[in-house]
Design goal:
Distance between the termini: 63 Å
Keywords: DNA-binding, Repressor, Transcription, Transcription regulation
CATH architecture of the largest domain: 3-Layer(aba) Sandwich
Structural class: alpha/beta
Protein name: Glycerol-3-phosphate transcriptional regulator protein
Helix content: 40-55%
InterPro entries: Carb_Metab_HTH_regulators (IPR050313), DeoR-like_C (IPR014036), DeoR_HTH (IPR001034), NagB/RpiA_transferase-like (IPR037171), Tscrpt_reg_HTH_DeoR_CS (IPR018356), WH-like_DNA-bd_sf (IPR036388), WH_DNA-bd_sf (IPR036390)
GO molecular function: DNA binding; DNA-binding transcription factor activity
Strand order of the largest sheet: 6-5-4-9-12-14-15
Strand content: 15-25%
CATH topology of the largest domain: Rossmann fold
Number of strands: 15
Pfam family, one: DeoRC
């Protein structure tokens, strides 16, 4: 009974840590709670089976992302016209017959809606909303990884998502981010998403960054990389001068629509 109580307290403290810091590694669990790495791994498996965490490489995040459902729904409405224009331009750039990775998020959902006009696409995405839209296209082939479905955005993520993405080669990775700071650093709020997106970028011939102007000057929780790592930026308003200079220096094509 005492061991069970200790395990329950450890799980509660572990979840409290995740609510504050959003990620915990196996090493952190072992050190913080004075347990073996095997016990730390079993803790994460138990919590994942309960739907409370999602295991990542070397650790775990909360099953729900830091953003709440109300905020996400508001983002779907905000800048909707601009996101629709971004989606149309990305669909034009992609063309028919492409193999694509499609990120999650409201802007990428707008991209998915416009991609329904294309033919013979092969798409890998962990967004169930985007997958559902594209599944209505008879000529499209859509692959999604296994895992838990996040209520906030219908994203499907697990510790195996990165490996799933690495199985494919892409003509283009269409990605979005939570923010791009003044120094050109792209970021997201979920470490697991960052790992999956990095894998997609490495497996793609080119990377298309689709973001509305509200992301400029915003810093996110986890660094994805430099804006110079993308090939094309598609946005609704011209980036501010400091970002334009970085984009020019990095040879990034900017499409304002």
């Amino acid at each position: 009974m005492q061991d069970a109580d200790k395990k329950t307290r450890r799980h509660s403290e572990l979840l409290a840590h995740l609510h504050q810091h959003h990620f915990i590694s196996l090493e952190d669990i072992s050190s913080r709670f004075a347990v073996t790495s095997q016990t730390a791994r079993r803790d994460l498996i138990t919590l994942e089976e309960a739907g409370k965490v999602v295991r990542r490489h070397g650790g775990a995040t909360l099953a729900e992302p830091p953003i709440d459902p109300v905020t996400y729904r508001r983002r779907r409405i905000e800048h909707a016209a601009g996101k629709a224009r971004i989606g149309r331009r990305v669909a034009e750039l992609v063309g028919d017959g492409a193999a694509l990775f499609l990120d999650t998020g409201t802007t990428c959902e707008a991209v998915a809606a416009e991609l329904t006009t294309r033919r013979d696409l092969r798409v890998v995405t962990y967004s169930l909303r985007s997958a559902t839209l594209l599944s209505e296209v008879e000529s499209a082939s859509v692959a999604v990884p296994g895992g838990f479905v996040r209520h906030v955005d219908a994203g499907v993520l697990s510790h195996g998502t990165e490996d799933f993405v690495r199985r494919f080669r892409f003509d283009a990775a269409v990605i979005s981010v939570s923010g791009i700071d003044a120094g050109g650093e792209m970021g997201d709020d979920d470490p697991g998403e960052v790992l999956a997106v990095r894998a997609a970028m490495q497996r793609a011939d080119r990377t298309i960054l689709a973001v509305d102007s509200s992301k400029f000057g915003r810093r996110a929780l986890v660094c994805l990389g430099s804006i110079a790592d993308v090939d094309i930026l598609v946005t609704d308003v011209a980036p501010p001068p400091e970002l334009r200079a970085l984009l020019e220096a990095g040879g990034v094509t900017v499409e304002v629509c």
